Amino acid sequence: MSTRRRREVEVFGLSFLDVISCGFGAIVLLLLLSKSAEPSIREQTTEELISREAQLRQIAEQTSGRSRALADEVAATREALEASQKTLAALRVQSDSLRRKTHETR
Q: N vs C: which end of the chain shows fewer Cβ within 10 Å?
């Protein structure tokens, strides 16, 4: 029998180095592409934020106007309630005095 000599297995062979270098190249390429696309995304985001800020300010102004109107309405309603309570108190006094008079006349 002939004895064949086995080749020694190389741990870091040529194919392993090819895979590592291709992977490193892919990562570098992705980083370069993402850096070049970033400013346009930031500009869009900035424009969207500015428009959103304007919308929120408009909503805040509308809400502020509504709250002022509601506060004025609440104040007017309270004044009307106080006036009604005073009128009610005066009518109760009159009612009591009329009851006394009718009781006295009977």
A: N
More confident residue, 89 or 19: 89
Average pLDDT of span 70-87: 95
Pairwise CA distance, residues 64 & 61, whole Å:
5
The 3-state secondary structure of the chain reads CCCCCCCCCCCCCHHHHHHHHHHHHHHHHHHHHHHHHHHHHHHHHHHHHHHHHHHHHHHHHHHHHHHHHHHHHHHHHHHHHHHHHHHHHHHHHHHHHHHHHHHHHC
